[in-house]
Amino acid sequence: MEEALIQYRNVEIHQQELCVLSDVNLELHKGEFVYLIGKVGSGKTSLLKTLYGELDVVAGEARVLGYDMRSIKRKHIPQLRRKLGIVFQDFQLLTDRTVYNNLEFVLRATGWKDRREIKERIEEVLDLVGMSNKGYKIPNELSGGQKQRVSLAGVMVDDVKVLLFDEPLANLDPAAGRATIELIDEIQEKTGAAVLIIEHRLEDVLWRHVDRVVLMQDGAIVADLPPGELLCGNFLMERGIREPLYLTALRYALVPVTPEICPEHPDTLKLTDAQKQQVKNWVLEQQEEVKEQQPGTELLKVEHLSFSYGEGRKNLEDISFTIYPGEMVSIVGKNGAGKSTLAKLICGFEHPQEGKIFFQGRDLASDTIKERASFIGYVMQNPNQMISKPMIWDEVEMALLQTGMTPEERKERVEETLKICGLYPFRKWPVSALSFGQKKRVTIASILVQRPQVIILDEPTAGQDYHHYTEIMEFLKELNEQGFTILMITHDMHLMLEYTKRAIVFCKGKLLADTTSAHVLNDPELVKRASLKETSLYTLSLKCGVEPPQRLTERFIAQEEHTQEKKEVPAHG
């Protein structure tokens, strides 16, 4: 076997006088696809940072592409990074330049001078990532998936040996996420580069072939196994990571998850006729009809809403729907479908060209942003757009300073909210020391602390592991049960299925559907039009012959609710 491109032996890393990695052993060979997974804070990003020289190795043996990371000189780090393609979840693009200019800038910064060679290389790499006809575009004209492709092109312009991805799917809609994994797989096949990817969206990564899954916990590697072997055991759930839904459904149906059934992906499953019948029998156990709740008084009403940013098309066109008190609703659709624009209109950041928005029957046209904020809270997708204070405590407390609460009342409310959001141990930390996912929780906390009547959350769980995902969502569920109305803009189809019975579906500024969440993901035509993705439950239902397929999804949701009721909710903190 060829020498490993990355070889770590008993590696130890310290950060801010804390040991963040200990006794790490890892190898990555040419052409391998390795998936690095673990809870937030398990050490994944720290490990990634050591690979490109951002964190120093203090003990053990660490070699990356021939460089000894314990003795590498600072002047050699740029040379190392040119062979490592590093793609982060935030797109690092120059917004005032075209795609071509962005790539040209990268090449010139790494020493390329000949215009003809630069042009040829850019054309070659744009073709590689499927963007050969988008070179003249500027980033703001691109979808999230296209930005991801340009970001990938930016690291491919040099002759990279290893591709490193830090949550590349976090900001992408389901269809774009799947397309990105397919693109990474195709690029690896064409170039022979090794791939190391960090990502919470387990099912999306396993959509294509993965050689090994490396599981981290508390700064150490606790498993390094082929996907099938890892999925058969309880490694994931025991460490707070959600297993694929189709495997949970099989366990509910008492079908053993073993290597014999090829559990790596729902398409690879090999179930016997008896096992398929077990699944069908489990689905049929749920006989009772689900009674629809009668809607109460209208709380939030959107009536014939239209809006345009002046780009030649309407970002929202003739949108009408009604939200009732105590509902928990998902708003879904591809990037650019109009979901975030809708939220900005409801909160008053933008004003509709046509139509009206009512709250408890009152037209909100004359309400200011500040006035609306007293009863409608909005958590943006990008935490950096919301955070204005350097310290975590100050950021969360800020909204309470003008409320008339006493210092003691503010302290109690902030502490309670920080514990709910898993931030209490960091209450005295600066925001700058947090990861992207932790910053996201700070912004949620800064809104939750106000206890508004309606909470609109734009991708509330993006970048969160299953433990923190569950913690945040269970708290939102608790608020909902207390009467708070919650709207969630999300790309997470699991979230939509588990926590919201109703889903409003958008595509290209138009409302495609307003129906049950289970129906949305069992309607192939609707899934295709809205750039969503069928869940693995839908695939399992087809494989087992469950008719209609929606029944398996509904049975799964009911089982999850029953299981959750029996479980004690994990303590916050």
Explain the layout of strands and helices:
Elements: E1 6-15, E2 18-28, E3 33-38, H1 44-51, E4 57-64, E5 67-68, H2 77-81, E6 84-87, H3 99-109, H4 115-128, H5 144-156, E7 162-166, H6 174-191, E8 194-198, H7 202-205, E9 212-217, E10 220-225, H8 227-232, H9 235-238, H10 245-252, H11 273-284, E11 300-307, E12 316-323, E13 328-332, H12 339-347, E14 354-359, E15 362-363, H13 369-373, E16 376-379, H14 392-397, H15 407-420, H16 436-448, E17 454-458, H17 466-481, E18 485-489, H18 493-499, E19 502-507, E20 510-516, H19 517-520, H20 524-529, H21 536-544, H22 550-566
Parallel strand pairs: 3-8, 3-9, 6-7, 7-8, 13-18, 13-19, 16-17, 17-18
Antiparallel strand pairs: 1-2, 1-4, 4-5, 9-10, 11-12, 11-14, 14-15, 19-20
Helix pairs in contact: 3-5, 4-5, 5-6, 11-22, 15-16, 21-22
Descriptive report:
This protein is α/β, with parallel strands linked by helices and 573 residues long. Helices cover 36% and strands 21% of the residues. The protein has a 6-stranded mixed β-sheet with strand order 6-7-8-3-9-10. The protein has a 6-stranded mixed β-sheet with strand order 16-17-18-13-19-20, with helices on both faces. Helix 3 packs parallel to helix 5 and helix 4 packs across helix 5. It is globular, with a radius of gyration of 24 Å. The two termini are 46 Å apart.
